[in-house]
Specification:
globular, mainly alpha
Length: 126
Amino acid sequence: MITRLYQPLLEAFELTYPQYLVLLVLWQHKKLTVTELGSKLFLNTNTLTPLIRKMKEKKLLTKQRSNKDERTVFIALTPKGQALEEEAKGVPKELIKSLKMSSEDLEDIRAIMWRFLDNFTETKES
């Protein structure tokens, strides 16, 4: 459902919703390992790897192996990926307008979602 809501807003940027999520995380953190990125997005490496490959082909991000441990791969934004932050900054506001819900309702949903994810993460680690 969320993907369907975002799709028309992201078409102008030639992005899918999962690609947009990757960008959101990287706009905030600048450079992460694949493992860290997957953890923040609740995605397994086997799901994340093709997503990263496609975004690399679009020249939105780079992959670089660590000099200390070649098993560690860092993901960072290219200048093109960084520039999209400014271009796409209106997407969340447009989505909110399309939902026709109050900001209080959306904040309640957000709080419940984070509580659910925190509980899910705790349960998964036990």
